[in-house]
Every structure is written in structure tokens, then in C-alpha cells.
Write a structure and sequence with these properties.
Blueprint lengths: L2 H5 L10 H16 L6 H10 L8 H8 L7 E3 L6 E3 L1 H8 L14 H14 L5 H12 L6 H33 L21 H10 L5 H17 L9 H16 L5
Antiparallel strand pairs: 1-2
Helix pairs in contact: 2-3, 2-5, 5-6, 6-7, 6-11, 7-8, 8-9, 8-10, 8-11, 9-10, 10-11
């Protein structure tokens, strides 16, 4: 499939903005050309192959699309190179034609997202934890989304416990001692001692001990709620984009941020 055929799948592509077309072509390059990263020359060729006018300010548009916390594309370490972010994948997913299944059983969104997630977990320093997260991502291939979320949460808590033991155990114990419940008598000396603390309380103590920032506390509490919903039988539907965001948030904002 060439760029013109790809764009022709969208009946109203003439109404798309230049930025939207750039995102579509970035997805096309990844999905159909195997280019996880791209430069302005590749996007320019897509416009030409699709018989569209090439934006005169293409380089400026790429820089604009890569700016901000939730930018749809990400700057590569190589100058002038970019890749789709999970937010860009979400935008493309929202307008893709309905029939997006692949021979491997992954929908188009996950086929593009899984390589991104593999690069995300490559940031995890501990080899055992990294392999555990790789298995969590593999669950997406058989639509075991809840399993992916539960496993990712377990890996995150395991990492944070190790971080506290390695760097912040005195601060953590001091925060415990200030509590008004029975945990005020608990002193953490080993990993087993954490078994007496509920995860929600563990997050509270991490915040009061300044192990994590308040913003990270909010992320952890939100993800704990998601984990709880997925860990028990319920009618809740878990979307692929939610699972991908769950992994990205915890790896980038907890596991990578608080190095053991």
C-alpha cells in the first residue's frame, strides 16, 4: 500500500489539517514502511506520493507537533528525527477505518503501540523487572488487558519498595511513626515488613515521607484504582489505549524516575 492508497481510506481526508495529515503519514511510515522513526524527507515524500502539496513550513510543523507534555510525536536522540508518541497513536486510532485487524491478531493500534512500549520498558534498569514487564506487554497479544495492568502495577510496587529500602527507609520509618494508627509501631527493616501495609497506605506514607512528589502520588492513586477494577471480576471494559497509557505513566513517572 502506498501513501495515496493509505490516505484514500479516509473519505474526508481533504478536511484534515496539515498536522493531522503529518500524523497519518507518520503512522503509515511505521505501519506499512517499517519506519519507527522518520524525518522531514520521509513525510515530504508521503505528501508527494499522495499527490498533495508539501507544506512549506514542514520542519516548523514537526517541531510544533513534538512540543508539550502530551505531544503527538517525540523528538529522537538523532537530530531531525521523530517518532509517534502514544498520544499521536491515540489520535490516529480515533479515525482509522473499522477493519484494522492484522494476521498476528493485534489490532492496528496495538501493532503500532507494542514496539513503542518495548522501547518504554527498555528504560527499566533492573533486568528481572524488565522481563516481567515484557511478559505483561505480551499479554496484550491475546487481549489479556487486565493481566497487563495487574502485572505492570506489581512491577511498579516492587520497584518502589526496593527504592524505599535502598534510599529512603529512615524517612519512611519516620513517617510511619507519626501515624495515629497501629502502623506507628511498625519499623521497616526488610521487604517482608511491607506486607503489613495496604498499597493505598503505602502510597500515603511515601508521599508524607517525601519519597515521591504529590504529582506522582496522584498518578499512583489513579493507577491503583484502575488496578483494583481490573483485579476483580466486573463488567468494566478496558480499552487498549488505557492499558498503554497505564504502562507509559508508571514506567516514565515512577520506575524510571526513582532509580534504585
Amino acid at each position: 500500500m502506498d501513501a495515496l492508497e493509505f490516505l484514500s481510506q479516509f473519505p474526508k481526508h481533504g478536511d484534515f489539517s496539515r498536522k493531522s495529515k503529518i500524523l497519518l503519514f507518520a503512522f503509515y511510515l511505521r505501519r506499512h514502511e517499517g519506519q519507527a522513526e522518520f524525518g522531514s524527507a520521509s513525510i515530504r515524500k508521503c505528501f508527494q506520493d499522495a499527490m498533495l502539496r508539501v507544506p512549506g513550513d514542514l520542519s516548523t510543523l514537526l517541531k510544533s507537533l513534538s512540543s508539550g507534555r502530551e505531544s503527538p510525536i517525540i523528538k529522537s536522540k538523532t537530530k531531525g528525527r521523530y517518532s509517534l508518541s502514544i498520544h499521536g497513536l491515540n489520535e490516529v486510532q480515533a479515525i482509522l477505518p473499522a477493519d484494522t485487524s492484522t494476521p498476528e491478531g493485534l489490532n492496528t493500534f496495538l501493532e503500532a503501540a507494542v514496539p513503542y512500549l518495548k522501547r518504554t520498558i527498555a528504560k527499566v534498569g533492573d533486568g528481572t523487572r524488565r522481563e516481567f514487564l515484557a511478559e505483561a506487554i505480551a499479554c496484550l497479544g491475546v487481549e489479556a488487558r487486565r493481566a497487563t495492568i495487574v502485572m505492570t502495577w506489581l512491577a511498579t510496587m516492587d520497584h518502589l519498595v526496593e527504592y524505599v529500602l535502598t534510599h529512603k527507609v529512615a524517612d519512611f520509618n519516620a513517617a510511619l511513626a507519626m501515624r495515629s494508627d497501629k502502623l506507628s509501631q511498625l519499623t521497616i527493616a526488610s521487604r517482608d515488613d511491607f506486607a503489613e501495609i495496604k498499597e493505598s497506605v503505602f502510597i500515603e506514607v511515601c508521599r508524607s515521607a517525601k519519597v515521591v512528589t504529590n504529582d506522582v502520588r496522584k498518578i499512583l492513586e489513579e493507577k491503583l484504582g484502575t488496578r483494583n477494577s481490573c483485579a476483580h471480576p466486573s463488567s468494566i471494559k478496558v480499552q487498549d489505549s488505557k492499558v498503554v497509557s497505564f504502562i507509559e505513566d508508571l514506567v516514565d513517572n515512577v520506575i524510571s524516575k526513582y532509580e534504585v
